[in-house]
Amino acid sequence: MTDTPRDHSASRARRPTCPRLARELLLVAPDHEDLTLGRLHTLTDTGRPGATRS
What we know:
Layout: H1 8-14, H2 17-26, H3 35-46
């Protein structure tokens, strides 16, 4: 088996993407605010965002 040099540029390019993707999946804002909790408060306190009552 021969050792081939790895292309670290792809790895370096993914580094900023990984935390961003994790934040999106976990619904955490860059300032560590829990977005899920905020959305739940909106739904329980005021109803669906953007909903109009007739």
